[in-house]
Design a protein that fits this description.
With 201 residues, the protein is an alpha/beta fold. The chain has a five-stranded parallel beta sheet, with helices on both faces.
């Protein structure tokens, strides 16, 4: 399967290798960019199938901040391809729900494998989440707000309270408050029951 890919990498030598590896695998490289501003412009203008994203990049944002914006504004899977593997970076990165996390230096086979499995998992999650606010509100005990629906999507994706708080830019106590309201409206007692009920519709 050929994918239309944007590469975000500030090292010219590494970016050339990534581009060549992608071309060798039959993918289309839409753009290779070196900073956060150009990355966001390229994503907005090209709507790629996937983004390969370094964490330490030039510009006003790092790769994790760019990933957060991708989640908020675009429905595009991304993979971190970075030299950083420390605990702090991993904790920040996992909240953004990447399709994969590849540590440089990498092998071309690692890249191909991560892209294939990452895209499959991403598409599987999307299929599992094929529900709308209108559908939920048809059987909910009372209508969900837009924010409650977003949090419902998050728990279906398997996000923890801490990850939801970071993604939604709200406090943990606010997340818990929304969840209690959500459970009450869905007629369930916990997140497991909520997920099962939603996926059964």
């Amino acid at each position: 399967m050929s994918l239309r890919v944007i590469v975000v990498e500030d090292d010219a030598v590494i970016s050339m290798k990534i581009e060549q590896d992608l071309l060798d695998a039959g993918h289309v490289v839409l753009d290779v960019v070196h900073n956060s501003e150009r990355a966001l412009d390229a994503i907005h203008n090209n709507k790629p199938d996937m983004v390969l994203l370094d964490i330490n990049i030039d510009g006003t944002r790092d790769g994790i901040e760019v990933a957060t914006i991708i989640n908020e504004k675009y429905d595009i899977p991304f993979i971190f391809l970075t030299a950083y593997s420390d605990v702090n970076t991993l904790e920040r990165a996992k909240v953004t729900n990447p399709c994969g996390y590849i540590v440089k230096p990498y092998k071309a086979s690692d890249l191909y494998t991560s892209m294939t499995i990452g895209l499959f998992n991403y598409q599987s999650k999307k299929e599992e989440q094929s529900f709308t606010l209108a559908e939920i509100n048809m059987w909910a005990l009372s209508p969900l707000s837009d924010r409650e629906f977003e949090i419902l999507e998050d728990i279906v994706q398997g996000l923890t309270n801490a990850q939801i708080a970071a993604k939604q830019h709200i406090s943990m106590s606010t997340v818990k408050w929304h969840l209690q309201n959500l459970y009450s409206k869905l007629g369930v007692k916990n997140r497991t029951s909520a997920v099962k009920k939603v996926l059964s519709i």
